[in-house]
Every structure is written in C-alpha cells, then in structure tokens.
Amino acid sequence: MKVNIFYNPFTIAAGLLCIVASGCTVKAVGDPNRPITIEHHITIDVRGLKDTATNIEDFVSGDKSKEDLINKKGEGK
Amino acid sequence: MKHISFRIFFMMILVLSATTLWAESYHIKQMTPEVEAALESRRERYDQLSRLKASGAVGENNRGYVVAFSDAAAGVVSLENQDRRIIYSTIAQQNNLGGALETIEKVFAQVQRDKAQPGEKVQMDNGNWTP
C-alpha cells in the first residue's frame, strides 16, 4: 500500500509539534502549569515565575525572610 | 514511512512533555542596593497600603501595579509602583528575560489577585474591576 506522507495525520501532527517546539509568539499569560514562549529564544515557565512572585509578595507582607528571595545555591548577596 | 512519522511524533511528544514538566525557577540572583531598597520600602509600606486597599482607595490592576481611586492615595501609589517596577525589571534582567517584562508584570498581578482580601478592588484579565 502506498502512503502519501504529506497527508499522513502523524506527519501533520509531527509537523505542528515541531513548530510549537521550535518556538512561536504567544502574547497572553497562559496556563500557569505550562511554559510559554515569548520570543523564539525566550521561554518562560509561568509556574516558576509565579513561585518567585509569591515569595516576593510573602516577603513584602512579612510572611517570609529575605533569604527566601535569593538564589537557593547561595549566589548573590 | 508510517513508522518514521510515528517516531517523529513520539519524539516530539517526549520533548514537549519534558519541557512542560521542567520547572524553571527564577530568583533575584543578586540583591543590588536598588532592589533591596525597593523591597524594604514595600515592606514598610505594606500596612498602610493594606488599609488603603481595605477602604477602597487603592486597587490592584491587571498589570501588576496599584491604582489610586482617591487623591489621598496617589502619593503612596506612585512610590509603590516605582518600587514594583524596579523589582520586575531586576527579575527580567537577572534571569535573561529582557523581552518578557509584560509577562512578569501579569504574573505578579495574578499573585496579587490570589492574595487579595474579600472586598478589595482587583482588575481581572478582561479589564473589569471587582467588586
């Protein structure tokens, strides 16, 4: 049986996934559990960023210490 | 040929899954005097800002900044937003997220909405204010 790869659903799906994986432009803040790509070379993990924002706001409200804000590996300060 | 397509498809699924599961962490990597001062100022201002929020004189917008709804709150709001801008920019700079300041601001706005007390004014993503 001859299979035309251009009309193969797997090829189409793989192609679409390649486009997504290689980078695209997303303007809105998306699902906090999924990374989003802002530019082709900048990918943000929104969940990680939200953790950082929560730590900072917890510090501001007095719920956390300053040590919680800086790099856990001890860089900085 | 179908096998090759399936392999490509499977590999892409693996790549995307790994990307999704990998939790990147962002930090204030270097506590510069500027960002430290901004954080301390915000901490000192916190109680005053909380009172203004409770009274309805100040609200949290959907861009990660506070908005004054009365002239009396304008000064505090201006200082608070100045400090927030320093913090957001520092996170962007120190984590190589230079082109993503808007996203950082929106994530902070989301956190402010999550932490808001009942009755405090917050702006939703669609631009509507609640309550």
By secondary-structure content and strand pairing, the structural class of chain A works out as alpha+beta
Shape of chain A: rod-shaped
Q: State the end-to-end distance of chain A.
A: 66 Å
Strand element count of chain A: 2
- What letter string, H or E per element, gives the SSE order of chain A? HEEH
Which value, in Å, is the CA radius of gyration of chain B? 20 Å
Assembly state: heterodimer
For the biggest sheet of chain A, the summary is: 2 strands, antiparallel
Order of helices and strands of chain B: HHEEHHEE
> How would you write the strand order of the largest sheet of chain A?
1-2
What value does the average pLDDT of chain A take?
A: 68
Mean pLDDT of chain B: 89
Short description:
The complex is a heterodimer of chains A (77) and B (131). By secondary structure, chain A is of the alpha+beta class.
What does this structure look like?
The complex is a heterodimer of chains A (77) and B (131). With 77 residues, chain A is an alpha+beta fold. In chain A, 38% of the residues lie in helices and 12% in strands. Chain A has a domain at 25-77. Chain A is built from 2 helices and 2 strands, in the order H-E-E-H. Chain A has a two-stranded antiparallel sheet with strand order 1-2. In chain A, a hairpin with a 2-residue loop joins strand 1 (35-39) and strand 2. The relative contact order of chain A is 0.08. Chain B has 131 residues and is of the alpha+beta class. Chain B has one domain (32-130). A 4-stranded mixed sheet of chain B has the order 2-1-3-4. In chain B, a hairpin with a 5-residue loop joins strand 3 and strand 4. In chain B, helix 2 (33-55) packs across helix 3. The mean pLDDT of chain B is 89. The interface between A and B is large, with 46 and 43 residues.
